[in-house]
Amino acid sequence: MSEKDFEKSGDGPPFARPRAFDTILYGGLVVGILDLLFAFTFYGLILGAQPLRIFQSVAAGLLGRAAAYEGGIRTFLLGILLHFVVATCIATGYYVASLVLPVLIRHAVVSGLLYGMIAYLGMNYLIIPLSAIGRRSGPVQISIFLTEIIGHAFLVGLPLALLARRSAKANPNHRN
User: Fold this and answer.
1) Which residue from 159, 120, 149 is spatially nearest to 31, judged by alpha carbons?
2) Given pLDDT bands bounded at 50, 70 and 90, which one contains residue 102?
């Protein structure tokens, strides 16, 4: 990747590369918090899941469902920690992709929305089936699927892309 790829190309302002710290750590924190709020709101308040179970379900990816649900507050807290680890990994993925594809910085809104949907699909159809949770049994309700994928587009991908673009704008002299 050359410096020219991050400079003005006629379809937007010039950008430097985003800073790793801003994009990865702040991105992981921001999308972790937004997705946590989404989970408590959608699964807890709207669908009626017990708040403890929401993040025990995240820990179930590592421990299995029975162990996670029997672990009480400890597995709830482990689930929250794992949730932020995953959010940071998703932010890292966007940062690395933005280094290879500067269009992700120049067209942050569209790129972020798409990245959020891709992150959702990857998590639910690749990562979770390979975890201790295993494959989902039965079909997914379309209303739940749409809410989740739209939520990830706007609460995961979009904030990451905007943070990366902001970081790149604030870093105009940094060229690798």
Assistant:
1) 159
2) very high
Rounded to an integer, what distance in angstroms lies between the CA atom of residue 38 and that of residue 40? 6
**Selection from 36, 67, 58 nearest residue 128 by Cα:** 58
52 to each of 47, 78, 128, 172, how far by Cα in Å? 14, 11, 19, 44
Position 38, amino acid: F
The pLDDT tens digits for 48-87 are 999 999 999 999 999 999 999 999 999 999 999 999 999 9
Q: How far is 114 from 157, CA to CA, in rounded Å?
A: 7
The DSSP-derived string for 26-60 is IHHHHHHHHHHHHHIIIIIIIT---HHHHHHHHHH
> CA of 42: how far to CAs of 13, 50, 85, in Å?
37, 11, 21
**Cβ neighbourhood burial of 93 (10 Å; 0-12, 13-18, 19+):** middle
For residues 19, 21, 23, 28, the Cα torsion angle rounded to the nearest 10 degrees is: 170
Angle, alpha carbons 93-78-30 (nearest 5°) = 40
Round to whole Å and give the CA distance between 9 and 153: 27
